[in-house]
Design brief:
Shape of chain A: globular
Oligomer: heterodimer
Low-confidence stretches of chain A: none
Number of helices of chain A: 9
Shape of chain B: globular
Number of helices of chain B: 5
Structural class of chain A: alpha+beta
Helix content of chain A: 25-40%
Low-confidence stretches of chain B: 1-21
């Protein structure tokens, strides 16, 4: 029996009829050629979030981002005019990676007045212009104006910095984000800047980990032992139903809105002893940050307007999640593909600055709890990847609570198929 | 004239490394000093300590420290952040509390040091916010 209302079509999945209700293939997560085409069709055409404005606090602040999936590295920098600019991280002279320290594959950050190549000392200003060539008189008709850094498109939304690697993006960032962004405009992201960052290399296709966090059907089972025994039995018996799902346009970003959160719980016996003392847990510290006004949430949050609302998980196509928790904090996930069956997983937890040491200790419980859950999710995935690769089973059923799994694979399939069709036309014309 | 390459090279914004010394805990928590090997400044050290401990070792630490956690929180509420630096004793107390948080999962939930079915997986905390 449904505990929460579903659309009039009878299910969330049928409400989005283009998704169908049949079994789904995960060949898109094991086929190396498919992955090669995803690089072009998905990652070189989409806006990709690479960080937040707080990482670039002053003129000359910079960080680099490794984008293996697009076979490049980019530099993001706050230029002298206050604008955030992005460049491919390559020196125009001999192709050395321009910004790195000690290990070329490691991401870097810091503050500088200009960028100097380690190899022959060519220098570029913060706007990317070539300003100095070592022994310039030795070159032949070299005009420095022709050798600036190669720019990438950069734009921001609510403090999130996005890049687009296309020569000409198909749409601007705002249009790309569509109704997803409109519904979240004004959330106080900029007041939640106390950040915990996790990184891990995961032996599974990037989409499979997004799938794992895109449905909470798994939660009462996989995470059963994280709850006290009576509560775990109750949760498993009830199962999981979301309050609301939505798939946006023109790009298929999505949200799953869920109940939950116990801040504080009606019955202290529902939670573990340490949670009662620290007044914190998976849903974060129970006491909302005192200085942040959370009384008027933007309309995109708690879309079902339900009193038991606990969290909204926004999937921003292709590889980002913003998860906002009712008690007043948020986290992001990023899934950066490194091969058909591996990716770099990044998680960032953002809280209000703790006012005293007790608030910091409460946050620690939320952060550690997050890691315990993620370790369960992450290892399950590698078990999934290896068995999908066996190809013993090629089609898998999905329930209504897994609609966003269906949505992601559908959206990627659409993009790759469109790209392949364009490429085939180009080849035909070329012949 | 050769230029000095380091002059204009980007500088790394180093994350400052904190090391625990033998500094005492605040006086009212002197009873917890026998657990000073749990005063660990980084999440990586705390997690390694957990995985390297037996359940009876962790249970003993939990049984000693958990009953003091309310008092630790009462004290910690009087230590403001964001202004003057936190003193060593208070910092150590916080790191001890963080270790108790880490050890609470094996004790309260898993009945074993590592997360069930997590194998060799790890998700390291690469940026730990300072205080």
């Amino acid at each position: 029996m449904a505990h929460f209302a579903k659309p009039e079509e009878g299910s969330w999945t049928e409400h989005y009829a283009h998704l169908g209700t049949g079994p789904v293939s995960y060949d898109d997560s094991i086929d190396p050629q498919w992955f090669e085409d995803e690089r072009e069709a998905v990652f070189k055409r989409s806006w990709l979030n690479v960080g937040r404005v707080e990482q670039l606090p002053r003129t000359g602040s910079y960080f680099t981002k490794e984008l293996d999936v697009a076979r490049t590295s980019v530099i993001l920098v706050k230029a002298a005019d206050g604008e955030i600019r992005g460049f491919h991280n390559i020196c125009r002279h001999r192709g050395n990676k321009l910004v790195w320290t000690d290990f070329p594959k490691e991401e870097d950050n810091g503050t500088c007045r200009q960028f100097a190549c380690k190899y022959h000392g060519w220098r570029y200003d913060l706007e990317g212009s070539l300003t100095f060539v070592q022994q310039e008189e030795e070159f032949f008709d070299l005009d420095k104006a022709d050798y600036g850094l190669v720019p990438v498109h950069v734009d921001t939304w609510e403090g999130f910095i996005f890049v687009n690697l296309a020569d000409e993006p198909e749409q601007g960032l705002r249009e790309f984000l569509g109704g997803m962004a409109t519904g979240l405009d004004g959330y106080p992201f900029s007041e939640m800047t106390y950040r915990y960052e996790y990184k891990a290399d995961v032996g599974a296709n990037w989409k499979l980990f997004i799938d794992a966090f895109a449905e909470f059907y798994h939660a009462p089972i996989l995470h059963m032992r994280q709850s006290v025994a009576d509560e775990a039995q109750k949760l498993a018996g009830v199962g999981f139903e979301a309050l609301h799902y939505e798939i946006f346009e023109p790009v298929a970003h999505s949200v799953v809105s869920s109940w939950g959160g116990m801040a504080p719980p009606s019955d202290p016996g529902m939670v573990k002893p340490i949670e009662n003392v620290l007044r914190s847990g998976l849903f974060g510290p129970w006491d909302k940050p005192a200085d942040i006004d959370l009384s008027n949430l933007p309309p995109g949050l708690n879309p079902a307007n339900h009193r038991a609302w606990g969290t909204d998980s926004f999937q921003i196509y292709p590889n980002m999640v913003i998860l906002i928790w009712e008690p007043g904090w948020y986290l992001t996930y990023h899934y950066w593909p490194t091969s058909v069956n591996s990716h770099r997983f990044e998680a960032n937890l953002y809280f209000a600055e703790p006012k005293n040491l007790a608030e910091r200790i409460s946050q620690e419980l939320a952060a550690v709890t997050f890691k315990e859950f993620s370790l369960q999710d992450g290892n399950t995935l590698e078990a999934t990847q290896t068995m999908i690769e066996s190809a013993v089973v090629r089609e898998f059923p999905l329930c209504d609570q897994e609609i966003l799994v269906r949505n992601l694979h559908h959206a990627v399939r659409e993009d790759v198929n469109a790209y392949r069709a364009e490429r085939d036309v180009a080849v035909t014309v070329g012949n | 004239m050769p230029i000095e390459p380091n002059v204009t090279s980007p500088s790394r914004s180093g994350t400052e490394e904190r090391r625990v010394t033998d500094t005492l805990l605040p006086p009212e928590f002197a009873d917890l000093e026998v657990w000073s090997d749990w005063i660990l400044a980084t999440e990586g050290e705390r997690y390694a300590k957990r995985l390297g401990s037996t359940m009876s070792e962790m249970q003993a630490f939990y049984d000693a420290a958990f009953p003091r956690l309310e008092a630790i929180m009462d004290h910690a509420r009087t230590v403001p952040l964001g202004g003057a630096p936190v003193g060593d004793a208070d910092r150590n107390l916080a790191h001890l509390a963080f270790s108790l948080v880490t050890a609470s999962f094996p004790v309260e939930a898993w009945k074993q040091p590592h997360v069930p079915d997590s194998g060799a997986a790890d998700i390291p905390l690469v940026l730990e916010p300072g205080f």
